[in-house]
Amino acid sequence: MIYEMMTGLPPFYTTDKKKLYEKIINEKITFPKSFNPILIDFLEKLLEKDPAKRLGSGLLGSEEIRKHKWFGNVDWSAMLKKELKVPFKPILKSEMDTSYFDSVIFIF
């Protein structure tokens, strides 16, 4: 999901389901040049093909993920207490306001 949020597409994108599964199993993930090395390290560890080696699957569980450098500035205690200030809060005209979304993603 993080990769998709950063690029607009999933890491092994294809419209063919069979090819998608083959890519997930066999291909090495590639990253845009614009990606920060810390983000690349984080995503590579999350997308590790061997589940036993994947970030978060060790003895520390999800703590491994929270301790990664990509989350270096996150105050987890404040987050759990819901004390963090959001960097951007959209002003909505109504509950159905989609003005902050790209119109290309909507298929009517």
Explain the layout of strands and helices.
Layout: H1 2-7, H2 17-26, H3 37-46, H4 62-66, H5 76-80
In words, what does this structure look like?
The chain is mostly helical. It has one domain: Transferase(Phosphotransferase), domain 1. The protein contains five helices and no strands. The radius of gyration is 18 Å and the shape is flat. Helices cover 33% and strands 0% of the residues.
Q: Could you write a compact summary of the structure shown?
A:
With 108 residues, this protein is mainly α. Helices cover 33% and strands 0% of the residues. The protein has a single domain (2-105), classed as Transferase(Phosphotransferase) domain 1 (Transferase(Phosphotransferase), domain 1), CATH 1.10.510.
Tell me, briefly, the overall form.
flat
CATH secondary-structure class: Mainly Alpha
Number of domains: 1
CATH topology: Transferase(Phosphotransferase), domain 1
Strand content: under 5%
Radius of gyration: 18 Å
Biggest sheet architecture: none
CATH architecture: Orthogonal Bundle
CATH superfamily: Transferase(Phosphotransferase) domain 1
Name some characteristics of this structure.
5 helices, 108 residues, Transferase(Phosphotransferase), domain 1, 33% helix, mainly alpha
